């Protein structure tokens, strides 16, 4: 399921492209086909098209040309992210013998520790999706809490701080991530929210826009921390049909829960962009009880005039105006959330689309360009 990058916004203007005349390295962690961090990296590359792009490795289904993989891609560790973590700092320090004037990293693990020249001559900027969850927040979504990392975690935390002192400036994808950077690394960061292809969603066909909005919607990967079990319970308590769009290893479990629900639950497996857009436009509300670093899905929903019902934490504090474009709560009791579903009908769809527009690709381009110019002259 693709949630961003449909190519409907204008390409970055040639006159706005920064760092012309300087050698630039663009650095990302492991590279998947459809992830949100990869979408940000692609947009950075569009803005700085002459930059050399480096990744730890790219997934087998990635066909994008021009990505230079590290030597880690030639080892079995490419298939085991958690096991590869302890060696990633070494990989970033032995990436290439080339030296660059400017290095921009897209980091959610150790990419921000990369060094491709002495900091007296090379300018280092890092766009941070989150300090490594496996290392700093192992219980956040359960993926980093295994015994394999229990021993080296403190060593990795110390290395993460020590090996990133040369970074001249950080940008965070949300206020939540900015606060984590302050907490873990004792560094400040400017907030630059990720780009969302809002124009694609607002430009829906008339037939999509005329739907009756008679169901609730859940969108995302079907894994435990996305809380689709809670979404089903909320729909059941609210007495409204539910559509679940996405895919993932929890599918069988969620289908069993759906079969016991008192309302119809429809599964949309890997919907394409047009189908997903239609689902947004037909929903009464997006139910999103997830603590995300940022979260592109709630912005897409608002671009379609669909209110968001979610938790008062994480990226939703950036993307949802509580009481205007959605309703946020600290409670995860379905009996508390269900009455809020009815209240979402009081909110203005026009206000939602206006709020979504502030997260457009153009807004990202302008903020990123301003940050680069400020830091690099």
From TrEMBL:
UniProt entry keywords in alphabetical sequence: Glycosyltransferase, Transferase
Q: In the UniProt record, does the keyword Transferase occur?
A: yes
Q: Name one GO biological process term.
A: carbohydrate derivative biosynthetic process
Tell me where on the tree of life, at the top rank, the source sits.
Answer: Bacteria
Any idea where the Glycosyltransferase subfamily 4-like N-terminal domain is?
A: 47-199
List the residue ranges forming a coiled coil, or say none. none
Q: What is this protein called?
A: Glycosyltransferase involved in cell wall biosynthesis
Q: Which organism is it from?
A: Catenuloplanes indicus
């Amino acid at each position: 399921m693709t949630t961003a990058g449909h190519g409907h916004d204008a390409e970055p203007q040639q006159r706005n492209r920064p760092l012309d005349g300087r050698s630039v390295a663009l650095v990302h962690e492991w590279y998947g086909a459809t992830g949100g961090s990869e979408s940000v990296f692609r947009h950075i590359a569009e803005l700085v098209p002459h930059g050399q792009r480096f990744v730890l490795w790219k997934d087998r289904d990635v066909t994008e040309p021009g990505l230079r993989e590290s030597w880690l891609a030639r080892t079995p560790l490419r298939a085991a992210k958690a096991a590869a973590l302890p060696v990633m700092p070494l990989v970033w320090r032995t990436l290439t013998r080339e030296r660059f004037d400017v290095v921009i990293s897209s980091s959610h693990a150790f990419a921000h520790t990369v060094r491709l020249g002495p900091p007296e001559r090379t300018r280092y900027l890092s766009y941070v999706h989150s300090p490594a969850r496996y290392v700093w927040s192992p219980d956040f979504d359960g993926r980093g809490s295994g015994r394999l990392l229990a021993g080296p975690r403190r060593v990795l935390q110390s290395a993460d701080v020590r090996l990133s002192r040369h970074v001249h400036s950080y940008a965070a994808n949300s206020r939540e991530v900015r606060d984590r950077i302050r907490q873990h690394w004792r560094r400040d960061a400017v907030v630059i929210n990720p780009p969302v292809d809002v124009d694609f969603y607002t430009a829906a066909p008339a037939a999509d826009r005329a739907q009756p909005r008679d169901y609730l919607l859940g969108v995302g990967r079907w894994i435990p921390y996305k809380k689709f079990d809670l979404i089903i319970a909320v729909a059941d308590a609210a007495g409204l049909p539910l559509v679940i769009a996405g895919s993932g290893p929890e599918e069988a479990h969620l289908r069993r829960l759906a079969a016991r629900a008192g309302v119809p639950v429809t599964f949309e497996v890997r919907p394409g962009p047009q189908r997903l857009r239609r689902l947004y436009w037909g929903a009464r509300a997006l139910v999103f009880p997830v603590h995300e670093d940022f979260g592109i899905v709630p912005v897409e929903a608002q671009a379609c005039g669909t209110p968001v019902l979610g938790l008062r934490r994480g990226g939703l504090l950036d993307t949802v105006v509580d009481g205007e474009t959605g309703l946020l709560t600290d409670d995860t009791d379905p009996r508390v959330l269900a009455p809020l579903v009815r209240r979402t009908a009081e909110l203005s769809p026009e206000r939602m689309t206006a709020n979504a527009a502030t997260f457009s690709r153009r807004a990202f381009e302008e903020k990123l360009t301003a940050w680069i110019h400020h830091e690099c002259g």
